[in-house]
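Bench notes, afternoon.
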Amino acid sequence: MELIGKRIREARAKNQLTQAQLANGICSQAQVSHIEKGALTPSAVVLYGISKKLGVDMNYFFNIGTDDKRQGNPTFKHIQSIVDNLKDLRDYKSLSLIIENAMVDMESKTSQEKQFLLWHKAICLYYVDNDFFSAERLLMEALALTDSQHLQVSEIENSYAIILAQEKKHEEALDLFHSCLQGSRRKGTISRDIEVKILFGLSQSLTHLELYSDSLFYSNQAITINIQRKSMYLLVECYYQSGFNLSQLNKYNDALEFLNNSSFIFNIQKNEKLVDIVEERIREIILFNNLQGVE
């Protein structure tokens, strides 16, 4: 983030503003200081506020000149890093600001960069504007831009499958999740986080289709991967998924073990909403056991 900090410092000096004056109404003076030193990555909202106060477009913070050939452009990697952070936070409104500004001068972008931007524009259209059809059109456009063997294609297909599932198009989503998983494993360079995400989505779609045994197979695969690499990525969600599937298969003791694991982790994370959901499921199983007995 050194480039962003340098650009902010230069524009602030040009506008004859102190750090405190720039920070006023946006963030703290200390945050501006850390950003300018490259020690802190600004959120999209903070960066947007700073750009408005300095009278510059947000692209000013990322572009390094017209002679830049774009291949392996470090500034675009900065944009990708911010985009990934915003996706993790599910801050789609801030993500939309970043993507809109990054999509200026698309002619100078490489095919992979164009694909990345179209992919995330589609995500914003769906989650901010609730526009499924426009999002689907952009996803298809993005997928057509590069060779199907490129790893980014698997990630786009996964996003498309997740959106299909949220639209309750579970059979279509299931086909795409399967294709995405097989294609990613063939490429041999799939990240474990992406593999877990695909497995979790696959499991969810199968559960919605009431194929609980198949769903359990994939949610348990995701759990195994995370345990092997000592990762928490979607682990608690997968514990709940496996527990729910087991309860639907009338394997109540096993279901309680997985659900208790998920409840324990959600409590540590202070995610009260999901704790309530899991605890309600646990109470239902215990009550049913008391009335019917356990297999």
